[in-house]
Recover the amino acids of this structure.
């Protein structure tokens, strides 16, 4: 099962995803781990970022690819990539609307 | 392990003796409740040296009653930050039994609980190595007031309720006295 | 209302300064998240699904207009222009940055507010009747005792690391608007034969995954003994409450497992063992001091029926409907208690924009001696409105989109934030509330349905109080999708009862139809409009609904 790493940003609190070049609010930019070895590498990077006080509580999320997009399998995680479903004007969905 | 007592880091004269260790002939020692309640419990007092007992957080403080007037120290265990049973144990020892010996916090003893511990009657703290020792002196000054009246000599705070009643306390007086 | 003296002010300011230092140490890496987490929780700061969330205490739901304006300022300056009023009479901001929280706490301290003990395993904000002090049916004003308990429980040396969170509610009226029977401790004020005020002490109620109605441990506790007696209860709980399983750690489990008689005996023994004379003297003096702040405002001598008001009632049907649905009898002649619904049709229950907060603050200054209350139903209240002013108030509310006349009706839904905000949630609550509200948008239909309370929780922790709703909805996850269970027949008042499960859950796109089916059964089969939903349910039982809602396949 392909996976990505997510966490919350320490200072801002925002949902972030581990990308090639650091942490991003854009889920489609997340690095996907397709096997255990890749996942372990990502988790090690995430643990470093947590120890360096960049993010809080990183964990892996199951995803599927849809075209060029990354979609978490669980509805909770799908909501985390966007923001409150009842307030489309808030959260990543508002700020990154054009990119999603 | 470092011992914080009466606002200072100090050397520890006491020795905790686990149940499987032989009892030293001399010197102040702390034993478990099980040892105190064991067949040789009375013998522990015979050497004439100060005796303390260590109570884990699930053990009832009432179990100490038969020996309290001869105990010089009660150590209360904090297994985790979230386990606050020892706060009640200390309060009962001081308020109800008038225990005047040392009440020592042992186990997972954290500076963020230091003021709470002093307020219920703890007066000595065993702190694991590696903790920020200097913060133990300063953390108490963060909030030098409390609403409740702490009926313990070791309290580091001034009771707001009492101060209102007596009108004795001027804001800032406590810090000036520190 | 209560005002801080120099001690209260200093206490809260020092606490804010302490947290500023803790945040600084977190941001510079001195404190790890593991070390910081309990410290931030003790100051009401959570990390939620999308962001941090700051929960601010509104002690026993009493707010001054200046305070509400400051909350609006905070919403605009450091959050996203709105706040969410909760079922515990608090307010939550959903988007603060960690680095800004110290400034927010300073801004709160400046208006005598704080976020102390809005989280963590400690005694939480004490709640009460939103009509306290002005309700026509009140026996005794509970607010001085709430404030006493607020002070007594703040940074309590012995009870700040309890097995689990602890909630106390107080009511001074026989009609219980504070749901005291579903709190860890519920205090109901009444008078003994000599006419002296005291408390019935109810312990071990609660919702969550093991809902229970509290049991009475003392029929009459003289008011002077409140603090030492509650101390005895807390000490028994702190010592003997379960710590091996967080789902069994609330006091209700202790009371349930050892039985109310054994529990009561432990408390009484603990109480007898102490010498409380000095403590009682101190607390009694403190209550006297506090009570002076709750002296009635300068009410005018007004006629019971204001001619202008009466005329408006005849002229304007919308106004008349709002008055009928939203106002409650006041102790003082010529005055009304005015409820403000935070449940516009299709809106988010309990949310208020900063503009609405300012509008309410202005209206409170103009018409209610500057005072506002927060109700656990997630609505607001202006407690002291001259009847003469009701029309002007209503116009102001309508202008601020706060004039929905649905108080106590089917669209006045209590809902927790659910998965739209909360990291514990298993399903969303708000969209379900919005859809039900839209389905029953027709006010004539709502009036016909009458007294039917719907509460929605997005997980088993039951922050939405679904167990005590006439119609409760619990959102769960079932095979990877949201699923909603219905309970019927619950009630949180003086005749508290827990709802009964209707049957298997409904999918997100079925739940509103299921709710409507329940309501249709009631409308079709009731004896008449005078038979309320709850009475109908108690007469016909759950089976009657089951047969109608679950059509055999």
């Amino acid at each position: 099962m392909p996976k990505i790493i997510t966490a919350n940003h320490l200072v801002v609190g925002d949902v972030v995803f581990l990308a090639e070049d650091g942490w991003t609010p854009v889920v489609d930019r997340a690095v996907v781990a397709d096997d255990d070895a890749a996942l372990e590498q990502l988790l090690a990077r995430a643990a470093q970022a947590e120890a360096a006080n960049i993010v809080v509580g990183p964990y892996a999320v199951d995803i599927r690819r849809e075209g060029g997009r990354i979609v978490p399998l669980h509805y909770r995680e799908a909501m985390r990539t966007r923001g409150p479903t009842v307030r489309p004007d808030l959260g990543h969905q508002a700020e990154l609307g054009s990119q999603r | 392990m470092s011992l914080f007592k009466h606002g200072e880091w100090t050397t520890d004269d006491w020795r905790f003796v686990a149940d499987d260790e032989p009892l030293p002939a001399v010197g102040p020692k702390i034993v478990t409740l099980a040892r105190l309640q064991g067949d040789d419990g009375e013998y522990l007092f015979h050497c004439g040296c100060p005796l303390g007992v260590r109570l884990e957080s699930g053990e009832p403080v009432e179990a100490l009653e038969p020996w309290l007037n001869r105990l010089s120290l009660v150590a209360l265990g904090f297994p985790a930050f979230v386990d606050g049973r020892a706060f009640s144990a200390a309060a009962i020892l001081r308020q109800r039994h008038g225990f005047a010996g040392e009440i020592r916090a042992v186990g997972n003893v954290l500076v963020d609980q230091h003021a709470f511990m002093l307020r219920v009657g703890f007066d000595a703290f065993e702190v694991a190595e590696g903790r920020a020792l200097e913060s133990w002196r300063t953390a108490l000054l963060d909030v030098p007031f409390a609403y409740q009246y702490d009926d313990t000599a070791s309290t580091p705070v001034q009771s707001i309720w009492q101060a209102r009643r007596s009108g004795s306390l001027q804001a800032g007086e406590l810090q000036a006295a520190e | 209302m209560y005002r801080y003296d120099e001690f209260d002010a200093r206490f809260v300011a020092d606490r804010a300064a302490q947290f500023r230092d803790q945040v600084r140490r977190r941001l510079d890496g001195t404190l790890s998240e593991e070390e910081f987490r309990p410290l931030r929780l003790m100051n009401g700061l959570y990390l939620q699904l999308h962001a941090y969330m700051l929960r601010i205490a509104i002690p026993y739901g009493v707010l001054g207009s200046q305070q509400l304006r400051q909350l609006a300022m905070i919403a605009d300056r450091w959050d996203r222009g709105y706040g969410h009023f909760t079922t515990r009479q608090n307010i939550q901001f959903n988007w603060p940055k960690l680095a800004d929280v110290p400034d927010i706490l300073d801004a709160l301290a400046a208006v005598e507010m704080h976020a102390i003990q809005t989280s963590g395993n400690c005694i939480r904000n004490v709640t009460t009747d939103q009509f306290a002090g002005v309700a026509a049916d009140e026996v005794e004003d509970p607010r001085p005792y709430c404030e006493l308990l607020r002070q007594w429980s703040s940074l309590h040396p012995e009870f700040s690391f309890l097995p689990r969170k602890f909630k106390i509610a107080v009511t001074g009226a026989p009609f219980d608007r504070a749901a005291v029977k579903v709190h860890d401790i519920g205090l109901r004020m009444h008078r003994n034969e000599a006419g002296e005020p005291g408390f019935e002490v109810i312990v071990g109620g609660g919702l969550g995954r093991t809902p229970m109605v509290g049991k009475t441990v003392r029929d009459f506790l003289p008011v002077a003994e409140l603090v030492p007696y509650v101390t005895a209860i807390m000490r028994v709980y702190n010592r003997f409450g379960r710590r091996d399983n967080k789902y069994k750690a609330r006091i209700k489990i202790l009371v349930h497992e050892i039985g109310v008689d054994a529990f009561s005996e432990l408390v009484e023994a603990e109480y007898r063992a102490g010498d409380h004379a000095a403590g009682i003297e101190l607390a009694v003096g403190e209550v006297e001091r506090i009570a002076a702040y709750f002296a009635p405002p300068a009410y005018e001598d007004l006629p019971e029926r204001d001619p202008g008001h009466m005329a408006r009632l005849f002229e304007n049907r919308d106004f008349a409907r709002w008055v009928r649905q939203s106002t409650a009898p006041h102790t003082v002649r010529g005055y009304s208690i005015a409820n403000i619904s935070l449940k516009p049709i299709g809106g988010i229950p309990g949310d208020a924009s900063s503009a609405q907060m300012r509008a309410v603050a202005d209206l409170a200054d103009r018409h209610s001696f500057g005072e506002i209350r927060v109700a656990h139903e997630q609505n607001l209240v202006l407690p002291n409105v001259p009847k003469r002013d009701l029309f002007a108030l209503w116009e102001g509310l309508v202008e601020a989109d706060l004039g929905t006349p649905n108080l106590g009706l089917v669209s006045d839904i209590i809902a927790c934030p659910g998965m739209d905000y909360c990291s514990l949630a298993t399903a969303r609550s708000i969209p379900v509330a919005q859809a039900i509200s839209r389905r029953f948008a027709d006010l004539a239909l709502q009036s016909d349905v009458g007294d039917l309370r719907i509460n929605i929780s997005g997980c088993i922790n039951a922050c939405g109080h679904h167990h005590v709703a006439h119609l409760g909805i619990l959102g769960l996850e079932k095979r990877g999708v949201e699923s909603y269970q219905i309970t019927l027949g619950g009630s949180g008042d003086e005749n508290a009862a827990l709802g009964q499960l209707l049957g298997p859950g409904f999918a997100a796109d079925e739940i509103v139809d299921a709710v409507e089916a329940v309501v249709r059964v009631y409308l079709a089969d009731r004896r008449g409009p005078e038979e309320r939903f709850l009475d109908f349910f108690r007469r016909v039982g759950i089976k009657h609904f089951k047969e109608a809602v679950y059509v055999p396949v």
Remarks:
- Residues 171-178 of chain B have pLDDT under 50 and may be disordered.
